[in-house]
């Protein structure tokens, strides 16, 4: 039966030939068997020239079916992009049974390495010329990613240049000579290792800036000669202080013009010979880079040669006693020529001393000392003089020094008077000049000085001869008299001192107390009973008292106790006791009268 519906008509005929009525039977045949399809093999192709796509004619798949093929179609694009494209083939038989298969189309893009021009590199310091040669290279029409390609060096790498095939970095070593450096490199697609491209890297290495700067040296003393600092001290290579030497990065120093008497040393210093005349000397030299010998600079510096310094220094002498006169040390003792003490003379290196202004009474001697005549008034005298170098007579200095003429020294010592009698007075208790000195000698003659009190004290008198009187009835106490001694010749030559005077005013007091002893307890005084007298003794003066005794003239009174000693304001009321036996006559008189007297002696012998 064919595919589809088939109608069968059935009739029955019996043995007699009778035919029955007919009936129909429908037979339906359905095709469910899918066609068989086999896709073409996978395709690998490159992009079309100058394009980022590929035009590919696909082969036809193999198909079979039991009933016949109606169509074979695919979903392939008109052009294929870079990468893998999956194409689906579909076959349909005449009964609409469908089968599929897939085919992969792999398109490899172009690889393009472009030439690199690195940034200019200063050869002195070196640096990175190209950060990554892949930055301008393409793979599959887009920028290369480092893990997609392999980088290899295609030509010999120049000396001083580094190429990292892992990172693509190109660098230049420090101290690389200037010039243009090139090399080639190749990149290959790791997915298609035969897909490669080669390009060139170009690097320009520049000279560092070399600069020789003008130097004016500090003066060198032409008398002794010497050596300057290096003239190259402020010269620069690439902005850094130069180093003279033969290593890469150093410079070579070459003299161009050097005056007679001067020598340009290999280290850049200049030696000045002794006795070179003073002046400014031009020294021309050239410095060239060791790495790039033609990279040079030339300059003229100035070497200053000076005269030796001459210096007359102010001197202030120690005082000379104008009374006796004398001679100072040399005023030139601290003067200098070339930093060394001057020598007055006529030889080279010596100086000549010339007075300019010298006051009357003073003489500037040829050796620089000054003589002061006797009886020269005290004061400060200016002496002006000049010293000039013998070798260079115009090399001079002038100065004014000070000569101190002093007055005779006065030495006034403080004095102390332990006791003066303030009750009776004391004449000439002390002479304050006895321990004072004028010009180192004791003042035996008061006429060579004047003396006066600087304060007024009641009862205290300073006499013109230096003695001090204390008037009678001067209040007790400690007195300080300030006085001044002046040189009669130099009346402003004065000193002060003080004298401390203790004015002693001793005194004593007694209080007598009578106590009736009623021995018979009668309550009345009877002959034969006794009276006890007690004495309260007080030192009321300003000095201690010794040998203190009590006297009572009452006949029959028996005194006991003493003598004693009392300090100032001290009291005693237990030492002295008097016992008196009452007489009938006392009872008859109705009273007993008596008076006690106390005596004491001060340290300076005054009895009170």
TrEMBL record:
Keyword Repeat (UniProt): yes
InterPro entries: DUF11_rpt, DUF7507, HYR_dom, Ig-like_fold
Swiss-Prot/TrEMBL keywords: Repeat
Domain called HYR: residue spans: 30-109
PROSITE patterns per record: HYR (PS50825)
Top-rank taxon, per record: Bacteria
Pfam (any one): DUF7507
Gene3D superfamilies (UniProt xref): Immunoglobulins
UniProt-recorded name of the protein: HYR domain-containing protein
Lineage per the UniProt record: Bacteria, Pseudomonadati, Bacteroidota, Flavobacteriia, Flavobacteriales
